[in-house]
Amino acid sequence: MAEEAILGYLEKNEEILDTGKFAEEKGISHDEIVNVIKSLNGFRLLDAQDIKKERWVLTEEGEMYAKDGSPEVQLFLAVPPEGIAREDLQKLKPSIYKIGSQQAIKNKWIEMGKLQVARKVDHVDDKVRDSLIQLQNGEAIGSGDIDGLKRRKLISSQIWKGYSVKKGPKYTPKRKKVATDLTRENLQRGDWKEIEFKEYNFLAKGQPTEGGCLHPLLKAWLLYLLFEEMPTNNFVESSFWNFDALFQPQQHPARDSHDTFFLKEPSTTRTLPEDYVERVKQVHESGGYGSRGYGYEWKREEANKNLLRTHTTAVSSRMLYALAQGTFAPKSYYSIDRVFRNEAVDRTHLAEFHQIEGLICDRGLTLGHLIGVLHDFFSRLGMSKLKFKPAYNPYTEPSMEIFSYHEGLQKWVEIGNSGMFRPEMLLPMGLPEDVQVIAWGLSLERPTMILYGIDNIRDLFGHKVDLSLIKRNPLCRLGI
Ligand code: PHE
User: Is 80 exceeded by the pLDDT of residue 454?
Assistant: First the structure.
């Protein structure tokens, strides 16, 4: 209706000077007119210019006086020609007594004695009320009157916004409905030839693009950045660094293809540090450094086999070897990256997962330091219920498995493994004899599951992950 009224009016008239007046004349709400004008202006059917006007509107008090009369007149009328006792007048007009008498005295309409109130004039006009009613009706009043009403807070100013409107370059008296989509029906009926399509608005803002989000796996472990990060950007590793350097014998079941993914292409590594390889062979075969070794025939071919690293300790062994090549200085390293195991996938196991590896090398380190570091690490993450269980690793002695209590599953869950690296591992590398290395390897997924109350590992990692989980989870719950 508003659209027809506007377009129709402009067919016969040059201009709508003031949409406010126009709305009133047509009996259409101004808001509706404004909405239609905005849309028609957007399509350039109209050319609309803003108009702003300062308008006076009545405050609540102003409205009241417009209806019942100003308090001074109300009060004056309550005073009979023969006068009245103050007390009685107050009882008669309790709500406006004070303000009414003030104004009436100021206007010299009444006289207030100690006890009596008397009229000073016979008749009064309610100019205040008249002005208020005039403003209510949109009529103009003198600026002196405006000031008076403003001072008494009976009116307040409001900016009124409207338009003056002319025909736009695309003006038509009746807007055709333009199509926004080409439909199957349009094609079948053939009416696509006649349809007028809506023009593309290349200036319209598109859907906001979605930004990247951090996976909770990453979020949970950002705190470990106090350590130096190890370079873990090689998923493919040789058996040598993954196993042999770690004093893991070549017959160890973990080195079986049932547990480890070996590479077909390239199946072997090309270079290894030969003199170090020789010392590793020696320590496996016959020991040294106070060890008896395993007493088996160590095979180079076995060490050369490429695999997908089964733990990030492969990287630790490379780092420690590199560290041993220079003058020793205490170090702490960490890494967070992917490892691979040929495992049956279930609620708590994946064939690909992530490990956090940490190690500290220094003189005089003990198992107590390791326990302390692990307690500190997990309690920062809100996991203070920890248990350590003696364990065995070929490369650590002593070794401890780490368990944490999962409130959701109501049981202890293994989250990692740790220990002190053996001399059979450290000394062939060339590290000083009095240097100890405490180290731990943790599944990244397990503690994250505990922290986030996730009881299926596949909800956290892999193709079944719900991406909205990643977006929903807050960055940090860590207390550093
Ligand atoms: N590499 C071990 C694992 O994969 C973890 C570990 C790291 C244990 C360092 C001891 C020392 O479970």
Answer: no
Mutate-to-test residue for ligand 1 from 360, 365, 418, 425, highest number of ligand atoms within 8 A of CB? 418
Question: Do 115 and 222 reside in the same domain of the chain?
Answer: no
Chain centroid to CA 467: 14
On whether residue 367 sits in a domain, the answer given is yes
Which residue intervals of 141-259 are DSSP H helices? 143-151, 184-189, 216-221, 239-242
Q: Which residue has the tokens 């010299």?
A: 108
Domain co-membership, 336 together with 452: yes
> Tell me, what CATH number does 433's domain have?
3.30.930.10
Amino acid letter at 121? V
Evaluate whether residue 176 is within a structural domain: no
Mind listing the pLDDT tens digit for each residue in 195-253? 888 888 888 887 766 666 555 555 455 455 567 889 999 999 999 999 999 999 999 98
Distance of CA 440 from the midpoint of ligand 1 (Å):
5
Q: Which atom of ligand 1 is nearest to the CA of 357?
A: 7
Same structural domain, 274 and 380 = yes
Beta-sheet strands, E only, within 35-109:
46-58, 84-85
Q: Which amino acid residue places its CA nearest to atom 6 of ligand 1?
A: 441
Average pLDDT over residues 18-46: 91
CB distance 439 to ligand 1 below 6 Å: yes
Whether 415 contacts 447, CB under 8 Å? yes
